[in-house]
Amino acid sequence: MIISMIDILIQMFSYTFLVRAVVVGLMVSLCAALLGVSLVLKRYSMIGDALSHVGFGTLAIATALGVAPLMVSIPLVVIVAFLLLRISENSKIKGDAAIALISTSSLAIGVLIISFTTGMNTDVCNYLFGSILAMSRSDVILSIVLSCAVIVLFVVFYNKIFAVTFDENFARATGTKAGLYNMLIAILTAMTVVLGMRMMGALLISCLVIFPALTAMRLCKRFLSVTICSALISLICFFVGVVVSYLYATPTGASVVLVNILVFTLFWGIDMVRGRR
Amino acid sequence: MENRRGGKEKTVIISCKNVTFAYDGFVVASRLNFDVARGDYLCVVGENGAGKSTLIKGLLGLKLPQSGSITFGSGLTLRHIGYLPQQTAAQKDFPASAYEVVLSGRLEMKAGRLFYSREDKNAAVENMRRLGIADLRGKCYRDLSGGQQQRVLLARALCATSEVIILDEPAAGLDPLAASEMYALIARLNNEGITIIMVSHDIAASTRYAKHVLHLANKQLFWGDTAAYKLSNVGFM
Ligand SMILES: Nc1ncnc2c1ncn2[C@@H]1O[C@H](COP(=O)(O)OP(=O)(O)OP(=O)(O)O)[C@@H](O)[C@H]1O
Ligand SMILES: [Mg+2]
Fold this sequence. Notes:
The complex is a heterodimer.
Chain A lengths: L1 H11 L3 H26 L3 H21 L3 H21 L5 H22 L5 H8 L7 H20 L1 H9 L1 H6 L4 H23 L5 H14 L3 H26 L3 H25 L1
Helix pairs in contact in A: 2-7, 2-10, 2-11, 2-12, 3-4, 3-5, 3-10, 4-5, 4-10, 6-10, 7-10, 11-12, 11-13, 12-13
Chain B lengths: L11 E12 L2 E12 L3 E5 L6 H8 L7 E6 L8 E4 L4 H4 L5 H6 L14 H13 L15 H15 L3 E5 L7 H16 L3 E5 L3 H7 L2 E5 L3 E6 H6 L6
Parallel strand pairs in B: 3-7, 3-8, 5-6, 6-7
Antiparallel strand pairs in B: 1-2, 1-4, 8-9
Helix pairs in contact in B: 4-5
The complex binds adenosine-5'-triphosphate and magnesium ion.
Magnesium ion (MG) binds next to helix 1 of chain B.
């Protein structure tokens, strides 16, 4: 049993594209899980979702123009992240409605551009639901650089991020530059979403942001343990998801989401049982 | 009670002159004039929407006045002010330990710092003991009762200051017993020398401990000491 498992892993990692996918995926999962804790607690989960839809639109534009996707997507999505944050901070505009508007508009624009250029083919399906073949060498390098940046920034500003997440008004009143840290979180989220999007799919990437954090919150009682637990859950779920998708030839993105759902249900069940006693 | 009328010098540390707050040109509190002295206990009362929270945000520098001036005296800066905000719904189920929350009050004690020192950690533990919540240290914030949560937030405010604490409805949502305990706790801190500015709906409780009362109704109806407030009929209109 164990031997055959190891055999399968060795077999899997003899494919270069799979090694790349796993490296990029693990890095993205880690970043998404760390940022997700803050996003979920600040009630900003929808922003991650909106960014992935915008990412889809920008991907379509990049393909139409024939330029490297990340060069177009990252700046555009970062700009939208800024805008979304402004909208959510400004109580006068209905934040959730604006987010839904931006999501659907980008999706529509993306689909239109694709249908005018390459036509509605399997590419569209890959954009929406992800493809494990999409990772190039430069993606691997970029994702390693990005995730190192996210981890370093997260550790360095951990206490500030906690303060801003728990109580933005108090943080501002005592002199923390809350706006700055909100921006930082938004930019890092935008980059993470764009990097992970092509593998996980535009419609599924926000799973990586939301699920691990929610799962960790079921059982953990300290912010530090929520953060660490969320990161571990995210890494394990991604890896298991990829192995499952290799074994049963299922789509990678959806398999990872499925594993996340199962783990969430498990944690939720444990929480229920413990709560009843 | 002996320092209630205190023969000590009255150093004005916060002074509001003709302060007006407006949202998009719509005035919610006009021409406020009052001073807060060191060691004072000012209670801000008024109906819902009277502009109390807006004034508090103004004092904390979270909202700029449309006109007039708020000045801090004798070396007081925003860094010396602790704050106990009206709780938000998102906070109530936050997965953090009470200790983590209290400790976060120390974050801006010195500018440009990212990590906590031994001294910070000791101060957090000490302030929790001071409010009788040392045993809640490892408990999860979301599992605490409303009164315990407020005490944790008060301990955090104490961590951020040894001079002034501004509280926005610290007893909101508490049962009568927990509320009166909260007010007694705040009065004790005031006796220990901390200046208190508190928003409250409960006029009876606030006039019991407060030294001065500020009554708002989008404008200033009353500012003066508590005895004069009780004699005036402002609070009972
Ligand atoms: N961000 C905002 N934008 C626009 N108007 C606001 C904003 N915040 C408060 N107001 C308005 O300002 C007025 C005063 O609000 P404030 O929150 O200061 O009242 P309050 O005295 O604290 O009331 P409560 O007792 O209910 O807490 C209200 O009419 C409110 O509608
Ligand atoms: Mg208020």
